[in-house]
């Protein structure tokens, strides 16, 4: 048995030795303890394994010396965090502890910080993702108690819900606001004398008649001693992903889309991942489709790499489909195509470009494969999409509703630029609407009957852009002269609302790349003595004129 007096002496000796450089003595060369006071971090592990490798990646990424950090984990069943504790190299962190039996983890966090003589105590759970600089930013505010504003990645929720107004949450006013309570995360400065009055245990205070919840107890203890609690939105501190408002499957879908959105913005793999835990990915599925096609040009491998990671994170099982590169089409190949008489782009007032021809041919080849292989339904995605916040959930529920209602359909826009306005929701469907004149083919679902209808009108004999062709085929195009060249126009088209996918970048945004807008304009063919199907190796003989244009 240890002598308690000796143990107390050791604690005192440790405290004095670590605090000596803050006690008036100049720090030695290379000593940074005065710059980075001891920090205690306590973490409640919630029951969602899919976030842990990413959450711990952010903890490992904190810009604070690891040998100045003490970490205490709370997890009722020591299953999830035990692997990290076992595998993370010893000696990096000053102290790592784990508790699986606890009644009031917040109060035990406070006792942990005090008993380890920590200057600062950070209390959080795995719903809260703090960015690497957040600790230093919070400490710089010089508050006894402060919480960072954390917002859901796609808006709608925050850790200040019901506590602060939209102007604060949306960052219209950048400030520190005093509040009565905080759900966390909470950073406390334990070196301030008043911090000794703070508690999460109602047994430690008198004249308390609240509901007994630790958060309410803490708020009362602060209020009773006139200790202000602050919320700050002065910086982008991180993200809040609630584990209480969604089912487990919905949590996983939203979290996967959150990670995929990071990839869309920055590239793979921008989100910190733990050094010792394998990153989580959902089991890839096709969401009830026979095939999911991802169209990509061979000369754009970086787009393919990014989309592989995006689709892996959202759990979509796909097949890479090599696009037809309009830049590489020869004059002989182009001469095999008849353009729609009088066609010009409605906005730019010009004939088709090489990239637009390649785009149409790429989709055309997929329709042919769908018919050849007998796929009853498929998804077609281009390689410059990002998934909307609940994109995969919308796709899943749309397929569930189609199965229940047995609605006949040929094509469903999963992402589009809506131009017409005469649309309405389809009865019996949660996310399906009728569709008016629309542009964009960045993502759509297509049935076997839809592919057959698109091929049956022989569009390569009167080619126009794909954006204009599809509305003609479901008979909602405003140009009656163009529409008259195609019959029948009976494509059963719909659209999801909200959209499942959207453009990764818009025109003029940093990182925007277009393989259609920047290509050459192709003049109308002069002669077509031998019309062939270029996808089957047919070749025509007529000459073709090219008009070079600057990139738009």
Description:
The chain has 552 residues and is of the alpha/beta class. It has helices at 4-19, 52-60, 80-87, 105-115, 134-140, 166-169, 214-224, 248-266, 301-314, 331-334, 354-373, 391-405, 448-456, 466-473, 480-483, and strands at 39-44, 69-74, 95-99, 120-125, 128-130, 145-148, 176-179, 186-189, 229-232, 238-240, 291-296, 319-322, 377-382, 385-387, 411-418, 432-434, 438-447, 493-496, 501-503, 521-522, 546-547. The protein folds into two domains: 36-251, Spore Coat Polysaccharide Biosynthesis Protein SpsA, Chain A, CATH 3.90.550.10; 281-342 and 357-473 and 486-546, Spore Coat Polysaccharide Biosynthesis Protein SpsA, Chain A. The protein is built from 15 helices and 21 strands. The strands form five sheets. It has an eight-stranded mixed β-sheet with strand order 3-2-1-4-8-6-9-7, with helices on both faces. Strands 12-11-13-17-15-18-16 form a seven-stranded mixed β-sheet, sandwiched between helices. α8 (248-266) packs antiparallel against α9 (301-314) and α11 packs across α13 (448-456). The longest helix is centred in the middle third of the chain and has 20 residues, at 354-373. The radius of gyration is 30 Å and the shape is elongated. The protein starts with a helix and ends in a 5-residue tail after the last strand.
The total beta strand count reads: 21
Question: Structural class, from secondary structure content?
Answer: alpha/beta
* Tally of DSSP helical segments: 15
* Cα-to-Cα separation, first versus last residue: 80 Å
Largest sheet properties: 8 strands, mixed
Strand content: 15-25%
Number of domains: 2
């Amino acid at each position: 048995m240890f002598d308690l007096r000796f143990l107390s002496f050791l604690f005192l000796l440790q405290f004095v030795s670590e605090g000596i450089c803050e006690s008036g003595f100049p720090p030695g060369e290379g000593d940074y303890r005065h710059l980075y006071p001891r920090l205690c971090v306590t973490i409640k592990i919630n029951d969602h394994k899919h976030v842990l490798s990413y959450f711990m990646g952010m903890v490992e990424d904190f810009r604070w010396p690891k040998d100045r950090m003490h970490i205490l984990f709370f997890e009722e069943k020591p299953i999830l965090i035990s692997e990290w504790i076992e595998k993370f190299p010893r000696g990096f962190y000053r102290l790592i502890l784990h508790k699986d039996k606890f009644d009031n983890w917040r109060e035990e966090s406070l006792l942990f910080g005090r008993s380890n003589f920590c200057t600062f105590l950070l209390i959080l759970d795995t719903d809260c993702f703090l960015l690497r600089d957040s600790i230093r930013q919070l400490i710089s505010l010089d508050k006894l108690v402060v919480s960072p504003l954390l917002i859901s990645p796609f808006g709608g929720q925050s850790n200040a819900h019901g506590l602060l107004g939209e102007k604060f949450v949306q960052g219209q006013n950048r400030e520190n606001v005093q509040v009565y309570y905080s759900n966390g995360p909470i950073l406390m400065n334990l070196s301030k004398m008043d911090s000794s009055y703070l508690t999460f245990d109602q047994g430690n205070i008198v004249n308390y008649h609240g509901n007994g919840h630790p958060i309410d107890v803490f708020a009362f203890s602060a209020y009773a001693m006139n200790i202000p609690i602050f919320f700050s939105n002065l910086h982008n501190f991180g993200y809040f992903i609630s584990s209480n408002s969604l089912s487990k499957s919905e949590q996983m879908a939203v979290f996967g889309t959150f990670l995929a959105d990071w990839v869309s913005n920055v590239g793979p793999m921008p989100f910190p991942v733990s050094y010792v835990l394998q990153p989580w990915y959902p089991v890839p599925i096709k969401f009830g489709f026979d095939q999911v096609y991802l169209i990509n040009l061979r000369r754009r491998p970086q787009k393919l790499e990014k989309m592989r990671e995006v689709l892996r994170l959202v759990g979509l099982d796909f097949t890479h489909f090599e696009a037809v590169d309009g830049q590489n089409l020869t004059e002989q190949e182009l001469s095999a195509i008849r353009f729609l008489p009088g066609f010009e782009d409605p906005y730019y007032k010009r004939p088709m470009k090489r990239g637009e021809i390649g785009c149409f041919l790429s989709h055309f080849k997929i329709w042919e494969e769908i018919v050849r292989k007998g796929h009853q339904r498929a998804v077609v995605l281009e390689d410059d999409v990002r998934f909307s916040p609940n994109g995969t959930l919308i796709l899943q529920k749309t397929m569930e509703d189609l199965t229940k209602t047995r609605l006949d359909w040929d094509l469903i826009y999963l992402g589009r630029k809506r131009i017409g306005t005469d649309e309405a929701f389809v009865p019996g469907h949660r996310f399906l609407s009728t569709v008016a004149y629309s542009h964009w083919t960045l993502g759509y679902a297509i049935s076997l009957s839809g592919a057959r209808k698109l091929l049956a009108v022989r569009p390569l004999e009167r080619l126009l852009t794909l954006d204009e062709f599809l509305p003609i085929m479901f008979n909602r195009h405003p140009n009656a002269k163009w529409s008259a060249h195609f019959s029948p126009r009976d494509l059963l088209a719909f659209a999801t609302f909200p959209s499942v996918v959207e453009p990764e970048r818009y025109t003029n945004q940093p990182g925007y790349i277009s393989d259609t807008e920047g290509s050459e304009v192709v003049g109308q063919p002069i002669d077509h003595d031998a019309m062939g199907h270029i996808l089957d190796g047919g070749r025509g003989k007529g000459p073709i004129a090219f008009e070079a244009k600057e990139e738009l």
